Amino acid sequence: MAQAKINAKANEGRFCRSSSMADRSSRLLESLDQLELRVEALREAASAVEQEKEILLEMIHSIQNSQDMRQISDGEREELNLTANRLMGRTLTVEVSVETIRNPQQQESLKHATRIIDEVVNKFLDDLGNAKSHLMSLYSACSSELPPGPVDQKFQSIVIGCALEDQKKIKRRLETLLRNIENSDKAIKLLEHSKGAGSKTLQQNTESGFN
Coiled-coil segments, which residues (predicted)? Predict the structure, then answer.
């Protein structure tokens, strides 16, 4: 009878220890789950800062190369460029890096996708129109919405093989490139328009001189 009581107490002690260990393990797991949410929030915030830096640099560069900059006095242009360069320098002092965890296949897919975009960019000077069409088909391959034009199916399969964060960065890069081309087109059209208007005025003045 005494031995039975001893065994019962021993079993009770083991049960208490097991229950306590399970509770402790559960609390630790809950803490790690909460920390994981904070880690993801940190990565998202850092990615947002990265994107904001890219946008600011693009906007400063766009202002420096705008048509308005060409239509002001040299002194004003110089002063504005000094301000723009100061802002660009301060923006570049902000360094944020969010490393993307990739497996070997995702790493290879990213290299392949980057190489394709770089090849199109290198053709800008040779054939801007064709390069723009090619970029549009690459961008359509990254869009979840119904694309307005053709889709580069090969590029799409490559992008799908990339990590999710890389897919977003590839799409953002293509958006930036297309905006830059659009701005270049506008600048060229404005320049051609000014030249055309100038030629027309010159022709009118010449004709009036003969009359």
Answer: 25-59, 164-194
DSSP codes, 6-53: HHHHHHHHHHHHHHHHHHHHHHHHHHHHHHHHHHHHHHHHHHHHHHHH
* Buried-state track 70-102, b at ≥16 Cβ within 10 A, e below 16: eeeeeeeeeeeeeebeeeeeebeeeeeeeebee
Q: Domain holding 182: CATH number?
A: 1.20.58.890
Q: Looking at the structure, do residues 162 and 115 belong to the same domain, yes or no?
A: yes
pLDDT score at 15: 52
First to last CA, the chain: 135
Q: Report yes or no: 122 and 137 within 8 Å, Cβ to Cβ.
A: no
* List of E strands, 106-194: none
Judgement on whether residues 120 and 169 belong to the same structural domain of the protein: yes
112 and 126 both lie in a single domain: yes
Backbone φ, ψ for residue 163 (5° rounding): -65, 155
* Residue 201 pLDDT greater than 90, yes or no: no
Query: CA quadruple 51, 56, 61, 63: dihedral positive or negative?
Result: positive
- Identify whether residues 39 and 55 lie together within a single domain: yes
Overall pTM surpassing 0.70 (yes/no)? no
Residue 210 lies in a domain: no
Do 141 and 122 sit in the same domain of this protein?
A: yes
Is 92 a residue whose pLDDT tops 90?
yes
| pLDDT score of 9 | 56
